[in-house]
Amino acid sequence: MSSKQKIIVVDSFSVNNFHETFNSAFLLALKLSSKKKITYYASNSAIIAIKNLVKNNILTEELKNVDFLSLKLYKGTNSIAIFFRYFLSSFINLKKLLFSSKEDTLIFTLLNPFFVWPLQLLLLFVHRKVFVICHGELELPIKKSAIYKPTYFYKKLIHSFLSSRKINKQLKLIVLGDNIKQYLLTLYPNLKQEQLKVIDHPSIFKQEKNKQEIRSTNKLIIGTVGAVSMEKGFTKLVELSNLINKERVCIHVVGSYHFNIDNYKNIHFVSKNGLQLPTQTYKEGINRLDFVLFLFHKNSYKLTVSGAVFDAINLNKPIIAIKNSYFESIFNLYGPIGYLCNDVSEIQQIIDNLNKDNDYKEQYVKFTNNIHKLKEHYSYKSIALQLHKLNL
After folding, report:
1. 7, 89, 142, 332: which has the fewest Cβ within 10 Å?
2. Which phi-psi region, left, alpha or beta, contains residue 45 (left: φ > 0; alpha: ψ -120 to 50)?
3. pLDDT in tens, 172-225
4. What is the pTM for the complete model shown?
């Protein structure tokens, strides 16, 4: 290996704690997997978030030789701000590619819709080894979007790229699971197997192995974690809140939302409307739960993973979810980590029984044991072995 060879990671989109767990864990895994010099470009706020998370997990020493370099990005979380950040970030990506060495490996941490076609064009003239990590943007082409919304434009760009007859052979797409790769190939048979590289979603988990049991309090506390929206099953949550026994079960929402909560008296909202919870408050909210609810549509998460699921796993929380291919793939790894249900009424039956049958407490311990196995599977150290096989 030449001493000049470098790995350049470009995150020209993240601000504050956006994707902080994935980005931190991926960087730790990358450092373990390669002896090459690593340079990490990101916004100053994203770099701070990574360093804080790594420090809080006593892992700072593992990144001591990584060069962190700051980028100036367009901030904001509304649709207009995101549009401009995508657009301007594409120019940052092109600049980093143009000014890199032919011996460098470049990793872009997001499939930027404005970047995919300029990247294709530039790779006709510039010879580089390029990897792009694909997250939720892969789902844009299969989601409905009003023609006047920016997401409609994004989905058209990404769909045209994925369905193109020939993607440059220097470009490899990293997808976060073999189930995602297989579904992507069914949607876009033009894609070549060798251009889709698979790693599992890396994470940094708490190492405590204490066995948890359902609380001995009178009330069972269940709830959703992460951002809440109608698309992510809030209507089903309202339906469930009207079915449960309020004296024995309490439903929490631990995460951000954008609607008036006065109409939902049966649900406890941890944060205020439109506000993102600080990381510590978010974790404290999850810790209060006995089970984490996931009420996504059955066709959700076919092409991406849920960060909220990893938040639940990290804090040893079993889940109750609407059954879909994503959750089935997780349960198939090491056994159930909770309950998969066909609909809300089935969830209600499970919840009713949780307060009655002592056998459920034994099941709870089995669930947490399986969660510990998942933690090992998705740990950044395990993902480092997968990255090593990609020959970055």
Report:
1. 332
2. alpha
3. 999 999 999 999 999 999 999 999 999 999 999 876 554 555 555 568 899 999
4. 0.89
| CA gap 336, 338 in Å, rounded | 5
Start and end residues for every CATH 3.40.50.2000 domain found in the chain = 220-377
Strand order in the sheet with 319-322: 267-269, 249-254, 220-225, 291-294, 319-322, 338-341
**Which fold does the domain 6-199 belong to in CATH?**
Rossmann fold (3.40.50)
Q: Rounded CA gap, 314 and 283, in Å?
A: 10
Beta-bridged to residue 250, according to DSSP, are 221
Token reading at 132: 């792009």
**Distance in angstroms (rounded) separating the CA atoms of residues 347 and 367:** 17
- Beta pairing partners, 155: none
Using pLDDT thresholds of 50, 70 and 90, give the confidence band for residue 256. Answer: confident
Task: Choose among 226, 80, 207, 91: nearest CA to 153.
Answer: 80
Strand 338-341 with 319-322, pairing: parallel
- Give the single-character DSSP code of 141: G
Joined tokens for residue 164: 């193109």
Residues 324/300, Cβ–Cβ less than 8 Å: yes
Residue 296, beta-bridge partner list: none
Question: Is the alpha carbon torsion for 42, 48, 53, 54 positive or negative?
Answer: positive
Task: List residues bridging with 43 in a β-sheet.
Answer: 71
Quote the CA–CA distance of 302 and 136 in Å, as a whole number: 10
